[in-house]
């Protein structure tokens, strides 16, 4: 599969601070590429560099087979984007906004197609209403319609579910899945909702403090044999004592009050449970935490740590 | 570029605030016209000074549409920069403030093209504002007061410009004023690049214009040849030059003449140079700017 985005050694310094530090990654055709990182990790700065809003300090970006520096307009003609919240012209109607931005994309799109686009995001009946009367969710949906109106082959979405209610989040998620599966679009999406990425992405990149932590397929990176398991016990002091005096300390990751988090193989769960029972630890609940959030934490907090003091 | 310009003008004229300027100009012009309609005689007496004691002044002829348009231009043209700054100062900072700048800049539009379009749109707005002023000041005044020769008071001398010799002077004056106000628009446009809120560039533009205008008017000889000739504000009132004619040996105005055309052209040249510097700097800075809004 050919690379749609190829980033090599990308760095951005804001005065003394390194927002992005020697970042390299590639997004392939047809990917739904999850871009993960905590707040301030450098996701938005990276996406803004991909969209030419920010000049890199150093590094090289190739998109759709072309150098971004020299072929900016050709590339952007084939890109649809939302950066954080979609701020639109509030004094214009939904139809006027989509019309204005489609013209800016360099395309003459007929009214029928613009209305279809509004219909897709369920805003056709509000086409003539000014955007200032819209809720955040409606603005976000209109932003998506604007990003897609010129039928781009690459879609870049920076935190597209920010500020949306659960229904809005589900709508955006379903739209991304539909665009990927049925319209063969390549999508790069950043989000702080890691569970969203887990559901929609096939490949992902995790960054922290501007640096790449890991990149690869979601399936490979999230190894089910190393699942995150939570044990809730009645006596946290005794539990910790048991963990630290046995080999289970190697699998132990952290304590959250009366919950003890382990990274372990599925088959080891009964063994650990038996050990607790043998040592007189009363186990209330065993729960699997199967999410990228746990995975991310396991990567960025390599050393086991105790989050709260024992009772 | 044309398509982008159309979009920009569409955006400007869909904003209600754009029409505040047109409303303000209409209001002040109508107030002046009403005042002169009902108490024009007192105004002319004041303007003529002692002459009105020695001569019989035909007030109804002096108070004609051309004369009233001249009075209006004198009274309000100096204040129009504020109205121009309202739009030009908002051009980039307003988009940054709304957050639309980052969406626009992800479109296949070069930054230079975007900036040129923004500035041209501000200039078109300025010209339309002046045309509106011309329409109200000239055409409405002519409609209500008729036409006749214009008496221009200048350094205790009254010059009479024939009515057949006046219309071209207004056209030239409005064209000159367009360039002068486009200079203010260029300054506001430049300042707009640095801000993410339109209030800053608008206030900064007006502050600079006020300070420089005061400096241009200061009667301190030291500044006459060193500073004043280089300030754009010293040249902004150059439009008045089109109403100053050469006079014959008998003291009568020579029809179709301009007293000091080279001075007007020099002023135009300086204003154009300022526009070039302001707009080029704005483009250069914007091309290097990281859009973080």
Provide a descriptive summary of the structure in words.
- The complex is a heterodimer of chains A (311) and B (293).
- By secondary structure, chain A is of the alpha/beta class.
- Chain A folds into two domains: 3-219, P-loop containing nucleotide triphosphate hydrolases (Rossmann fold); 224-306, Alpha-Beta Plaits, CATH 3.30.70.
- Chain A has eleven helices and 15 strands.
- In chain A, the strands form three sheets. Chain A has a six-stranded mixed β-sheet, sandwiched between helices. In chain A, strands 14-11-13-12-15 form a five-stranded mixed β-sheet, sandwiched between helices.
- In chain A, a hairpin with a 2-residue loop joins strand 12 and strand 13 (259-264).
- The longest helix of chain A is centred in the middle third of the chain and has 18 residues, at 166-183.
- Chain A is elongated.
- Mean pLDDT of chain A is 83; it is low at 302-311.
- Chain B is mostly helical and 293 residues long.
- Chain B has 13 helices and two strands; from the N terminus they run H-H-H-H-H-H-H-H-H-E-E-H-H-H-H.
- Chain B has a two-stranded antiparallel ribbon with strand order 1-2.
- In chain B, a hairpin with a 2-residue loop joins strand 1 (150-154) and strand 2.
- The A-B interface holds A 48, 51-55, 72-77, 79, 81, 83, 85-92, 96, 100-101, 103-106, 143, 146 and B 3-4, 7, 10-11, 14-16, 98-100, 102-110, 288, 290-292.
Report a brief summary of the structure.
With 311 residues, chain A is an alpha/beta fold. Chain A has helices at 43-50, 72-76, 94-104, 111-120, 136-148, 166-183, 194-200, 218-221, 236-244, 269-278, 292-300, and strands spanning 3-14, 17-28, 32-36, 58-63, 66-67, 79-83, 154-158, 186-190, 203-208, 211-217, 227-233, 252-256, 259-264, 283-289, 305-306.
Structural shape of chain A: elongated
> What is the CATH homologous superfamily assignment of the largest domain in chain A?
P-loop containing nucleotide triphosphate hydrolases
Spatial strand order of the main sheet of chain B: 1-2
What is the domain total for the residues of chain B? Answer: 1
Series of H and E elements of chain B? HHHHHHHHHEEHHHH
- What is the CA-atom radius of gyration of chain B, in angstroms? 21 Å
Q: Structural class, from secondary structure content of chain B?
A: mainly alpha
Q: Which range best describes the helical content of chain B: under 10%, 10-25%, 25-40%, 40-55%, 55-70% or over 70%?
A: 55-70%
C-alpha end-to-end distance of chain A = 54 Å
- The strand count of chain A comes to 15
Strand portion of chain A: 25-35%
Shape of chain B: elongated
- Averaging pLDDT over every residue of chain A, what do you get? 83
Find the structural class of chain A using helix and strand composition.
alpha/beta
Q: What is the rounded distance between the termini of chain B?
A: 25 Å
CATH-defined fold name of the largest domain in chain A: Rossmann fold
Poorly predicted ranges of chain A (pLDDT <50, ≥5 residues)?
A: 302-311
Tally of alpha and pi helices of chain A: 11
Q: How do the strands of the widest beta sheet of chain A line up side by side?
A: 6-7-8-3-9-10
Largest sheet of chain A: 6 strands, mixed
Can you tell me the CATH architecture of the largest domain in chain A?
A: 3-Layer(aba) Sandwich
């Amino acid at each position: 599969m050919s690379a749609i985005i190829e980033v090599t050694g990308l760095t951005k310094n804001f005065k003394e601070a390194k927002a992005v530090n020697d970042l390299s990654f590639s997004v392939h055709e047809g990917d739904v590429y999850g871009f993960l990182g905590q707040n301030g990790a450098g996701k938005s700065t990276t996406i803004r560099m991909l969209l030419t809003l920010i000049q890199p300090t150093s590094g090289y970006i190739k998109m759709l087979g072309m150098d971004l520096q020299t072929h900016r307009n050709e590339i952007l003609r084939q890109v649809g984007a939302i950066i954080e919240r979609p701020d639109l012209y509030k004094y214009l109607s939904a139809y006027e906004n989509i019309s204005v931005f489609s013209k800016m994309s360099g395309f003459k799109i007929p009214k029928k197609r613009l209305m279809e686009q509004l219909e897709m995001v369920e805003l056709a009946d509000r086409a003539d209403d000014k955007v200032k009367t819209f809720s955040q969710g409606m603005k976000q949906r209109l932003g998506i319609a604007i990003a897609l109106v010129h039928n781009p082959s690459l879609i870049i979405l920076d935190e597209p579910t920010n500020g949306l209610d659960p229904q809005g989040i589900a709508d955006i998620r379903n739209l991304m899945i539909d665009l990927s599966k049925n319209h063969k679009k390549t999508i790069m999406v950043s989000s702080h909702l890691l569970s969203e990425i887990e559901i929609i992405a096939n490949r992902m990149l995790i960054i922290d403090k501007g640096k790449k932590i890991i990149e690869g397929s979601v399936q490979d990176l999230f190894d089910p044999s190393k699942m995150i398991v939570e044990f809730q016990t009645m006596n946290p002091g005794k539990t910790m004592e048991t963990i630290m005096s046995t080999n289970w300390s190697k699998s132990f990751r952290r304590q959250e009050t009366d919950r003890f988090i382990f990274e372990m193989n599925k088959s080891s769960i009964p063994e650990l449970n038996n050990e607790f029972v043998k040592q007189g630890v009363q186990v209330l609940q065993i729960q699997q935490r199967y999410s990228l959030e746990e995975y991310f934490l396991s990567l960025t907090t390599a050393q086991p740590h105790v989050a709260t003091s024992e009772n | 570029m044309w398509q982008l310009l159309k979009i920009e003008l569409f955006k400007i004229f869909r904003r209600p605030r754009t029409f505040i300027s047109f409303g303000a100009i209409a209001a002040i012009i109508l107030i002046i016209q009403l005042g002169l309609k009902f108490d024009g005689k007192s105004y002319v007496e004041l303007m003529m000074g002692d002459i009105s004691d020695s001569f019989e002044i035909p007030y109804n002829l002096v108070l004609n549409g051309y004369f009233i348009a001249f009075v209006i231009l004198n009274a309000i043209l100096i204040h129009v920069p504020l109205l121009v700054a309202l739009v030009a100062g908002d051009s980039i900072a307003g988009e940054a403030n709304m957050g639309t700048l980052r969406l626009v800049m992800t479109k296949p539009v070069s930054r230079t093209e975007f900036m040129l379009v923004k500035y041209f749109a501000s200039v078109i707005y300025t010209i339309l504002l002046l045309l509106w002023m011309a329409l109200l000041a000239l055409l409405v005044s002519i409609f209500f007061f008729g036409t006749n020769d214009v008496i221009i008071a200048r350094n205790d001398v009254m010059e009479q410009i024939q009515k057949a010799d006046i219309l071209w002077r207004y056209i030239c004056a409005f064209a000159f004023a367009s360039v002068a106000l486009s200079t203010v628009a260029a300054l506001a446009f430049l300042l707009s690049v640095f801000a993410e809120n339109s209030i800053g560039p608008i206030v900064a533009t007006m502050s600079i214009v006020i300070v420089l205008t005061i400096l241009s008017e200061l009667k301190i000889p030291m500044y006459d040849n060193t500073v004043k000739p280089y300030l754009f504000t010293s040249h902004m009132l150059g439009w008045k030059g089109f109403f100053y004619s050469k006079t014959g040996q008998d003291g009568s105005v020579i029809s179709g003449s301009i007293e000091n055309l080279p001075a007007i052209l020099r002023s135009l040249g300086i204003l154009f140079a300022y526009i070039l510097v302001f707009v080029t700097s704005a483009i250069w800075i914007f091309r290097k700017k990281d859009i973080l809004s």
